[in-house]
C-alpha cells in the first residue's frame, strides 16, 4: 500500500528494504498508519518484525525505500535521522525501568524541557491514566510485572511521541495477566489518541489490541489488513495457515461459487474465475463446521480440548484428513465417537492447488 499525497499519515512506510551489514532482512515493505491507529506485526521467528521496529526507531540503515512520520522523512538510502530526534517512544519486553528511580522519576525522565510544575502535572495525569495513582513514590522492585509495564507505558507516553513502538511488551507476563493488560493498554492508547505499532508472537494479543495487523514472512509483508479480514479473507496460503486454525481440503470447482469436496458441495458468497473441473484447496475453519444431529455426514473424534464454555474437537474424515469443530461444552462426546456434522462456510476461501490431480 502506497500512501496517497492528499492525506497526512502518522506513519508511512514505502517500499522499505533494510537489514544488517549490507544484507536486507526486509524486502520492499509498504503500509501506512493513520493518527490514533494501533497496529501489530505478526509472523514466525526471524521474519523481520523486530528488524522493522529497529529500523523505524533509527537503529538500522535503509538500503531502499523510505520512512515518514507525520509527513517528515526520517529514513531513506540517503537520510537517517538519529533516534533521539524521531519523536518516537518505545516500550520494551523487559520494561527497562531505572531500578534506583521511583515511579515518578521514571515517568519524568526525559521531560527536562518542562517546568517542575508541568512535569509534576504530566506525571500525575499519566499515573491516573494507567491506573497507578498513589504509586509514584514506590520503586520498580516493589511493583508487580503488570504494574511495571504500566509504568513503562506511562514513561513512553510522557513526551507525547508521534509514534509509539512496543516490542513484545507482555512476553514476560503470565497468560491471564497478558490478556487483561493488553485490553487495558489498548484503552489507554485510545484515550490518548496515540499511534502505536506493536510486535508480538501472540495472535490473540494482536487481535485484541490492533486496528490493523501485518503478517510478515521472510521479510516480505504478506497482508496488511483488519483482524476480521485476515481471518476470513486471507490473501494467500501462508496467511490462511498462520492465522487461526484451519485445514486445507482438496476440492474441484463445479461453478464460480460451488466446490465439490469430501464434505459435499460447498457454496460460498464469492465467485472464483477458475473453470469447472479445476482442482483447488478449500480452507475449512472450526467455525465453518457445525454439529447437526440430522445430518447424514459424520466424522470420528480423535482429539478433544475442553475450553470452558466450548469444546474443540478434532475430527478425522474418511480420507484421513483432520478438521476441527467448536461445540458447546455441555454437548459432551468421547474419543472415537462419530460426530454428525455439516459445513456452513459462508466465507468460502479457496486456493489453486499446487499439484493438480
UniProtKB/TrEMBL annotation:
Task: Supply the name of the protein.
Answer: ABC transporter ATP-binding protein
Q: What are the boundaries of the signal sequence?
A: none
List UniProt keywords, sorted A-Z: ATP-binding, Nucleotide-binding, Transport
* Domain ABC transporter, chain residue ranges per copy: 11-243
Q: Does the keyword Transport apply?
A: yes
**Which GO MF terms are attached to this record?**
ATP binding
Family annotation (PROSITE patterns): ABC_TRANSPORTER_1, ABC_TRANSPORTER_2
The record's listing under Pfam families reads:
ABC_tran, TOBE_2
Q: What InterPro entries does the annotation carry?
A: AAA+_ATPase, ABC_SmlMolc_Importer, ABC_transporter-like_ATP-bd, ABC_transporter-like_CS, Mo/tungstate-bd_C_term_dom, P-loop_NTPase, Transp-assoc_OB_typ2
Amino acid at each position: 500500500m502506497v500512501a496517497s499525497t492528499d492525506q497526512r499519515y502518522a506513519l508511512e512506510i514505502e517500499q522499505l528494504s533494510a537489514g544488517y551489514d549490507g544484507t536486507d532482512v526486509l524486502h520492499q515493505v509498504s503500509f501506512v498508519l493513520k493518527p490514533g491507529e494501533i497496529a501489530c506485526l505478526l509472523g514466525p521467528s526471524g521474519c523481520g518484525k523486530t528488524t522493522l521496529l529497529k529500523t523505524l526507531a533509527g537503529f538500522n540503515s535503509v538500503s531502499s525505500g523510505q520512512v515518514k512520520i507525520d509527513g517528515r522523512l526520517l529514513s531513506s538510502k540517503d537520510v537517517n535521522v538519529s533516534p533521539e530526534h524521531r519523536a518516537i517512544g518505545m516500550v520494551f519486553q523487559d520494561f527497562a525501568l531505572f531500578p534506583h528511580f521511583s515511579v515518578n522519576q521514571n515517568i519524568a525522565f526525559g521531560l527536562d524541557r518542562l517546568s517542575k510544575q508541568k512535569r509534576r502535572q504530566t506525571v500525575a495525569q499519566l499515573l491516573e491514566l494507567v491506573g497507578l495513582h498513589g504509586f509514584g513514590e514506590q520503586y520498580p522492585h516493589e511493583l508487580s510485572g503488570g504494574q511495571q509495564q504500566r509504568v513503562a507505558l506511562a514513561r513512553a507516553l510522557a513526551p507525547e511521541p508521534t509514534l509509539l513502538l512496543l516490542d513484545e511488551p507482555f512476553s514476560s507476563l503470565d497468560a491471564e495477566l497478558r490478556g487483561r493488560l493488553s485490553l487495558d493498554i489498548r484503552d489507554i492508547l485510545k484515550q490518548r489518541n496515540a499511534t502505536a505499532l506493536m510486535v508480538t508472537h501472540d495472535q490473540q494479543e494482536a487481535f485484541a489490541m490492533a486496528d490493523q495487523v501485518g503478517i510478515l514472512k521472510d521479510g516480505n509483508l504478506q497482508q496488511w489488513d483488519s483482524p476480521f479480514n485476515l481471518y476470513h479473507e486471507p490473501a494467500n496460503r501462508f496467511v490462511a495457515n498462520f492465522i487461526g486454525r484451519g485445514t486445507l481440503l482438496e476440492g474441484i470447482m463445479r461453478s464460480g461459487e460451488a466446490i465439490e469436496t469430501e464434505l459435499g458441495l460447498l457454496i460460498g458468497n464469492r465467485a472464483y474465475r477458475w473453470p469447472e473441473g479445476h482442482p483447488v484447496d478449500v480452507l475449512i475453519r472450526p467455525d465453518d463446521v457445525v454439529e447437526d444431529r440430522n445430518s447424514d455426514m459424520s466424522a470420528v473424534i480423535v482429539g478433544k480440548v475442553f475450553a470452558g464454555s466450548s469444546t474443540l474437537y478434532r475430527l478425522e474424515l474418511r480420507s484421513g484428513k483432520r478438521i476441527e469443530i467448536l461445540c458447546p461444552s455441555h454437548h459432551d462426546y468421547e474419543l472415537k465417537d462419530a460426530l454428525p456434522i455439516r459445513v456452513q462456510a459462508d466465507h468460502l476461501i479457496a486456493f489453486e492447488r499446487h499439484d493438480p490431480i
